[in-house]
C-alpha cells in the first residue's frame, strides 16, 4: 500500500522534469501539478536526474558553439544532435517504463516525443550537411595532386636548365635540388596511397611514382656525397693555404662538378 507523499517529496520529481523543458519545450507550469510517490526519492524515479543533466549539458554545448549566429560546423553539429537524439530515446524509455509508478504526466511524455522528433530531424539535416561537406573535401583532395605535379615539373626543369647540354651541376646545388625532388616524391606518394580508392588513382601511376622516387633518392645520395667530398677538399685546401703549403688543389677538388647520369631526368 503506497504512502501519501510528504511536502518535500511532491516538488522533487516535478522540478527535475521541469528542467527538461530547456530542450523538450515543456512548460514548467504544466509540471507543477505532478504528484510523486514516496518512492520518488529512490531508484527508479530518481534516474530521470541523469537524463536531465545530460540533456542540459548537450543543449548548452549546442548553444555555446552556435553563438549569436546560431551556426555550427556540420560535423560537430551532427555529433551533438546524435547525442541529443540518444538522450531523448533513453529519456522516453524511462518515462514510458516508469510512467505509472513515478506518476509521469502525459504532457511530459507527449512533449518529450515531439522534442525527440524535432531533434531527430535536426540530426538528419546536420549529418546530411556533414556528409556533403566531407564529399566536397574529398573531391578537393583529388585535385591536390596537381600541386605536387606542378612542383615536380618545376624542380626537374630547374635541374635540366642548370645542367645544360653537359648534364653537369655544381654538387652542392645538385644535392639541394635532388633533396627537393625526393621530398616532393614522398609527399606525392603519400597523397596517392591515401587517396587511391576515392580518387581512383591507377596502380600504374603509383608504381611509376615509386620507381621514380627510388631513382631520385639514389641521385640525391650521389649528389650529396659529391658535395660532401667537395666541401672536405675545399676545407683541406684552405687549411693548406693558411699553413703556407705549396700548390693549389686542381681538378674537381675546388671547382667540382656532378654529372647527371644519362636518362636520369
What is the element layout, followed by pairings?
Elements: H1 10-19, H2 21-24, H3 28-31, H4 48-66, H5 74-98, H6 106-142, H7 144-163, E1 168-169, H8 171-195, H9 203-242, H10 252-255, E2 258-259
Antiparallel strand pairs: 1-2
User: How is the biggest beta sheet arranged?
Assistant: 2 strands, antiparallel
Name the strands of the widest sheet in spatial order: 1-2
Q: pLDDT below 50 for ≥5 consecutive residues: which ranges? A: 1-40, 246-255
- How confident is the prediction overall: mean pLDDT? 77
Domain module tally: 2
Q: Please work out how many helical segments DSSP would assign.
A: 10
Kindly estimate the percentage of residues that lie in beta strands according to DSSP. Answer: under 5%
User: Cα distance, first to last residue?
Assistant: 94 Å
Query: Helix and strand string, N-terminal first?
Result: HHHHHHHEHHHE
Structural class: mainly alpha
Question: Can you give a write-up of this model?
Answer:
The chain is mainly α. It has two domains: 10-141, no CATH class; 143-259. The protein is 71% helix and 2% strand. The chain is built from ten helices and two strands; from the N terminus they run αααααααβαααβ. It has helices at residues 10-19, 21-24, 28-31, 48-66, 74-98, 106-142, 144-163, 171-195, 203-242, 252-255; strands at 168-169, 258-259. Strands 1-2 form a two-stranded antiparallel sheet. Helix 5 runs antiparallel to helix 6. The longest helix is centred in the C-terminal third of the chain and has 40 residues, at 203-242. The protein is elongated.
